[in-house]
Design a protein that fits this description.
The chain is an alpha+beta fold. It contains 14 helices and 13 strands. A seven-stranded mixed β-sheet has the order 3-4-6-5-7-13-8, with helices on both faces. It has a four-stranded antiparallel β-sheet with strand order 10-11-9-12. The chain has a two-stranded antiparallel sheet with strand order 1-2. A hairpin with an 8-residue loop joins strand 3 and strand 4. Bound molecules: zinc ion. The site of zinc ion (ZN) has 5 residues, from loops.
Length: 487
């Protein structure tokens, strides 16, 4: 199929025009009015959502340990009448909140996990940890989770007020940063009833994303040798450390023979206990990424051979075990067009002079061009967005999914950095969060009021997935365990 897709009786080109879509989609005028009602609610309650985001930011928690963060969001949802199921997919901090009944079923995704070592003072343009070495919201998931919940509540109030048909779901999805929170939720059937999923992520640009996130697989590579005294009887030992070094060298050599789109990175988690003991056990964590899951699988096959080769050469034993595997997102132009339409209607975040001064001070500190923060909505084109992998790739293979980015940090700055932590509790981040909530809420109402959207999204999904049902990458006995806690 070409890049032109059918949406509700019209053809949407690679670049969408808001005016053209709105005038042609049946019922669009009603949806636009409803969208504005959700905007008004989110404007009235803005301070409350900023406090919620700040509360989560103040207690950053790593994947699968987001107890307080999940509790903050669940409390708000329950007060608004959502039915909440906790512990979805065997993950204590995962939840599913539901309001309404019947079709269509539109879901929003909340993330709320932090990253290790990215503690940073709020609104400080220079590196200044709140607590050295502690976690921080360096991917802005405090904003992500809060905007999704705010949007679900805004849309639900509108559903009730206008007696709209359908169901609104809000999935609390933990452990995104360790790659598998949503994958276990899908395996447990959490998305079985869901028609479409809408999501967003903090960024340095404002745009609807399309086909850029990479597929990724992470594995633990272990070597088992034989311990011995390194000085008095080294000939009796077989070094698991040597095996890991040899294996790592093989991977480094492999870098010359992978596609330019591929990425490989690693850390050594266990390298032995002391130089005078021949190590009998070592462990490295290796991540493989590329633009398609097929290519990642091919690289994984080569990694396994390198591990076996290193074990053979050192007379040790190799074991490769999967930590997570997530595919590249399945694009859905029909659903993306809905987000683009609402994003263009609402417009980019309104950053003021003090936001721009803060952004430029941060860029100066980092040695970047002092370009400030983005004030425009990017047009919808193919290959919009960054290359970070996410477990939303798995969701997109199970249910039609669309995602947008909002500028919540200065141009050129990256996620997984103290700069994003600083902006995630600053007006700059809150303004991006506010627009994200409005776009998601209005788009959710569009889905409830325009049956053509679900149909177009589903038809395109069937083409993109060739009608094949979702197959989980998880081995049958896999359990959600954080990598650092796994060994
Ligand atoms: Zn993230």
């Amino acid at each position: 199929m070409s890049s032109r897709k059918r949406l509700g009786g019209i053809w949407v080109g690679a670049i969408c025009s808001f005016a053209a879509i709105v005038s042609l989609v049946p019922g669009a005028s009603i949806a636009r009015a409803d969208g504005r009602a959700t905007d008004a609610y989110l404007d009235e309650t803005r301070a409350r959502w900023e406090q919620t985001a700040r509360q989560i930011w103040d207690t950053p928690e790593l994947g699968l340990n987001e107890t307080r963060s999940a509790a903050v969001l669940i409390e708000v949802l329950e007060k608004e009448g959502f039915q909440v199921t906790r512990g979805v997919g065997g993950e204590a901090t995962a939840f599913a909140a539901t309001a309404g009944s019947g079709a269509p079923v539109v879901a929003l995704l909340a993330e709320y996990d932090a990253l290790p070592g990215l503690s940073q003072a709020a609104g400080q343009p220079k590196k200044q940890p709140v607590a050295e070495g502690s976690p921080g919201h360096g991917c802005g998931h405090n904003l992500l989770g809060t905007a999704a919940v705010a949007a679900a509540i805004a849309a639900n109030r509108e559903r009730i007020a206008k007696k709209l048909p359908g169901t609104i779901q809000l999935f609390g999805t933990p452990a995104e940063e360790i790659g598998f929170g949503k994958t276990f939720m899908i395996r447990a059937g959490a998305f079985k009833r869901t028609d479409v999923v809408l999501s967003w992520h903090p960024d340095d640009e404002t745009r609807v994303t399309n086909r850029t996130r990479l597929a990724a697989t992470a594995v633990n590579v272990e070597f088992f040798g034989r311990a011995a005294h390194a000085a008095s009887s080294p000939w009796l030992g077989r070094s698991a450390f040597d095996a890991l070094v040899l294996f790592d060298h093989a991977i480094s050599l492999m870098r010359e023979h992978i596609k330019p789109t591929a990425r490989m990175h690693r850390v050594i988690r266990e390298g032995g206990s002391a130089p005078n003991i021949i190590a009998d056990h070592t462990l490295g964590e290796y991540w493989l990424r590329d633009s398609t899951g097929e290519s990642v699988n091919e690289m994984l096959g080569r990694l396994r051979k390198a591990a076996d080769g290193a074990a053979l050469a050192t007379e040790t034993r190799a074991k490769v075990s999967l930590i997570f595997s997530l595919r590249e997102p399945v694009p859905n132009d029909a659903l993306n067009a809905v987000l683009q339409r609402e994003l263009e209607r609402i417009g980019p975040p309104r950053f003021d002079d003090s936001d721009q001064r803060f952004a430029k001070a941060m860029q100066k500190e980092l040695g970047f061009e002092e370009a400030g923060i983005s004030t425009k909505v990017m047009p919808y084109v193919q290959h919009n967005g960054g290359t970070a992998s996410s477990d939303i790739g798995e969701v997109s293979a199970a249910v039609p999914l669309a995602e947008l980015n909002l500028a919540t940090r200065p141009l050129g700055t990256a996620a997984h950095h103290w700069a994003q932590t600083a902006c995630a509790a600053h007006p700059l981040g809150y303004k991006g969060m506010g627009v994200a909530a409005k776009v998601l809420a209005a788009s959710a109402i569009d889905v409830l009021t325009e049956p053509a959207i679900v149909k177009a999204a589903h038809d395109e999904f069937m083409v993109q997935t060739k009608g094949k049902p979702y197959v989980s990458p998880l081995p049958p006995d896999a359990k959600p365990v954080a990598p650092a806690a796994a060994h």
